[in-house]
Description:
This protein has 387 residues and is an all-alpha fold. It has one domain (4-15, 50-371). Helices cover 75% and strands 0% of the residues. α3 packs antiparallel against α9 and α5 (148-154) runs antiparallel to α11. It comes from Zizania palustris (Northern wild rice). One of its GO terms (cellular component) is membrane.
Amino acid sequence: MGGGGGEDGLAAGAGAASGNNVKGTASMDVVxxxxxxxxxxxxVLRSVVLSYAYVSVWITLSFSxxxxxKYILDPKMYNWSFPISLTMIHMAxxxxxxxxxxxxxxxxxxxxxxxxxxxxxxxxxLPIGALYALSLWxxxxxxxxxxxxxxxxxxxLMPVAVYSLAVAFRTDSFRRASMLNMLGISAGVAVAxxxxxxxxxxxxxxQLAAVAAEATRLVLIQILLTSKxxxxxxxxxxxxxxxxxxxxxxxxxxxxxxxxxxxAAAGRPDVFVFGTNSLCAFALNLAVFLLVGKTxxxxxxxxxxxxxxxxxxxxxxxxxxxxTPVNLVGYGIAFLGVAYxxxxxxxxxxxxxEAERKAASMxxxxxxxxxxxxxLLPEKDGGExxx
Length: 387
């Protein structure tokens, strides 16, 4: 939501954290003859069609939010160059709608295990909300200075930032192969930046700051929320985080944009444009949760690569942004690095799932052996008593 590093919303981080958990299903490998017959497996075709549908909905909404934000903020288009105000409109809309769904209509319940205490909110939610505010502010601001295609190329640095911070916070281990992969992605982005026809140093700095803030937010979600056993869906995420994000944005908005809004007499934005834009942003949060919940966080990463190529093609053909051969070569190098990163993550998930399957099977076998011993021991004790 909001564009740039954080356009995929609050659910992206929470969903990715939960989506990477591999739950074993092999505990039923060893069953007794009295067990109920297994349920029929779902249609493979149906599963494939649904997965592609989830991916298509997410790509469409993410694509729409990015292009819509670019349209609003770009001086050559709608020319409403107030990124903090746009982000605040998103946050106010999403916070209001989430509060209504939670408190008025009771569509979802707030988490109760663990309960959201003031201490937990201050220690966990506030830092994440502050980083999310920075990510959205910087990423939306970058659309004023950079093309859509170049921003997508810069966002290829997200795995680099996340892995580096995970190693720094010791939530992941340092591996030479992974670091060489990160260096390859960085080199590809550097080549793409060298070939950018509309290079703007300040815009690049804004987008890099957005990537850094978003990567820190994702790492903190794992540290602060996942470690405490808290699971948030997109509605409850917005319910908790959007208000404090709005509050954090109020300070820079008051000093940076409010005087400009008064001078430009732009304090009353078009209700239809900004209403539909905010609705798309809210729907994107739900689509992220649906995609990660029904498939996996890795699927969203792979779909994100497809979305980036589509945005680059759209930027080149429709918006008429200049995309040079050097741009494409550089992004191609970064793309290969990101593809390898996703492949390595997939192999890691498969290995973890296989290990959990074996562990579950061994536990079931040991449980069966223990039951057999328990049946034999009384008979043995009885025999000794008769002798």
